[in-house]
# Entry
Amino acid sequence: MAESTAPQRTLPIDLAQTVVSFAVRRGWDVNQLLSGVGVSPMLLAEGRSRLTDEQMIGLVQALWTYTDDEMFGLGEHPLPRGSFRLLCYGLLGAKDLGDALKRTAGFARAMPALPVAHLDVVDGRARLGTTYAPQTRHHPDHLVPLAGLAISHRLLAWAVGRRLRLHLVELPYARPENLEFHQLVFGAPMTFGAEEAALTFDADFLRAPMMRTDAEVEEFVASAPAGLLTRDTQATMLSDQVRRMYELGLKGDPPTGDGIARRLAVSPQTLRRKLAEDGTSLRVIREEVLRDAAVTSLVRGDETVAELAERLGFSEPSAFSRAFRRWTGSSPGAYRREGGES
# Structure
C-alpha cells in the first residue's frame, strides 16, 4: 500500500461548474480544461461531488493561462499577468497594514482593472469596502467579487503573518443555494445583496507591521492561488479542532466522542451543544473527514479501493463504496485519474 498522506479538506463542485460554464461561453475546450486537473466531466452533474485543493488551484491557473488576465477576462479592463506580484511588493513597502491599505487607492489609479477600495474605521472596527464595475458585480457566476474578497483576506493575513479574523463579509449578489464554499473560505458571518463587497475586522489589526521578505513574495506569487482561494487553514472554531482530532485518528487511533471532549476540557454534552450551534455534529465531522481522505487518495492514486477501504476502517470494499456514493453521489472510480475501479 502507498504511504498515506494527510487528507486535504475537499471543496464542493461549485467552482468546477462555474469554470465550465465560463469556458463554454468562450468556446474553450472544456474536456481539456478538466482533464488537466483530473476532474471527470461526469462529476459536474452531481451536486455532491468534491474537488481537492490541488484541483481547485489547477482550475484557477488554467483560467489565467487561457485568458492571460488575472481577472479572467471578466473585468472592465484586463489585469496583465504579473500585476499581483507588483501589488504584493507595493503593499510590503508600507510601515503597517493601515498604511498598506491607504496605498490601494493609488494602485487602482495605476491599474484600472482593480476595484476601487476604501477603508473606514468606526468604533474599533475597520471596514474595507470594494466597488466593482456592473459587468463583474452582476456576472452570473459572481466569480470576481467572491475571489476578490477571498484574495484580499488571505493577502492581508499573509502580509503581516497573522490570522485575520473577520467579523462580517458583505457580498454584492444574492445568497447562493449552497454556502459551503463561502463558509470554508471566510469562516465568518455573511450578508448578501450588499451595495458593495466588504470585509470588517478589528481596527487594531491595522497597526500590524508588514512581515514578509522579497524571497517570500516570490514564493507566495509562484504558488498562487494556493492559500488564496482555499479554506482558512488557521481556523480556530471548535468544529475545526474536532476535525483535526479525527484527521489524526486516521493514523490508527480513532478518537471517541468522550475522548475528544476530554481533550477539549469540556463535557460530552457541552461538546455536542457547541457543535450543534456551529451547525454540525461529531458524526457529520467524522464522515466529512473520511470522505475527504477518500477523495484525496483516489485523486492522487495513492491506494487501491480495497486498501483505502481497509485504512479507513470499513469491513469490506463494498461497504466503503456504498458510503462513498452516499457522500459524493458517485462511485470511487469516478474520482480516479485513470477512471478505473481498482
Q: What stands out?
A: The first helix runs from residue 14 to 25.
